[in-house]
Amino acid sequence: AQSVAQPEDQVNVAEGNPLTVKCTYSVSGNPYLFWYVQYPNRGLQFLLKYITGDNLVKGSYGFEAEFNKSQTSFHLKKPSALVSDSALYFCAVRENAGNMLTFGGGTRLMVKP
Amino acid sequence: EAGVAQSPRYKIIEKRQSVAFWCNPISGHATLYWYQQILGQGPKLLIQFQNNGVVDDSQLPKDRFSAERLKGVDSTLKIQPAKLEDSAVYLCASSLDPGFNQPQHFGDGTRLSIL
Predict the structure, then answer these.
(1) Which domain holds residue A91?
(2) What total number of domains does chain A contain?
(3) What is the mean pLDDT of residues B48-70?
(4) B4 in reach of chain A (CB within 8 A)
(5) What is the pLDDT of residue B72?
(6) CATH of the domain at B94
(7) Domain holding A42: CATH number?
(8) Which residues in chain A are contacts of B29 at CB distance < 8 A?
(9) Band of the pLDDT at B71, cuts 50, 70, 90?
(10) Domain residues for B29?
(11) Which of A44, A107, B51, B95 is most solvent-facing, going by the fewest CB within 10 Å?
């Protein structure tokens, strides 16, 4: 069965500093990985995905993520955090061409001025 | 492009009552999903439709939950009777097709509170 772990409930970072939100996954086949962001009282917004190809994936709002097969990780990164990046971030995995997207429990990102 | 529309935004009912949620996906999106998001957790898939057919409902509590997408466009999710543990946000999402590389587009959800 596929699963996703986000080991940090909350990440705190100062504005202008780099940020990393961690995600590890478990699948029996090829993983297809996604990051979504959720603002208060809103639905999830797609940020980026890894399907195949380059391990470094660039997405919306300056975010990027690095796929590491040996460590089964897909950490979300941004070189310089903004206060407006404060939100709930979800990592998700889909196994091969399967139908179900499995989400992690989410990580709250707090960016302080 | 208009996003995924859901209504109502909020609903408060007593346990054992029934409730229904409505979703209109992005125009042209063949695949529609219903998720349950309990406070502090990630979304959990309840049911997936491809056009008007069910693709996956393995995690839908079928003794109390039902969903339909009769004309392959909008969809309704019903709970009858509701239990306290059904308190959650119910999210609808859609995608062009069920392909593994297609991102899902989410509505803002319906927040359900059971008293």
Answers:
(1) 3-112
(2) 1
(3) 92
(4) yes
(5) 84
(6) 2.60.40.10
(7) 2.60.40.10
(8) none
(9) confident
(10) 5-114
(11) B51
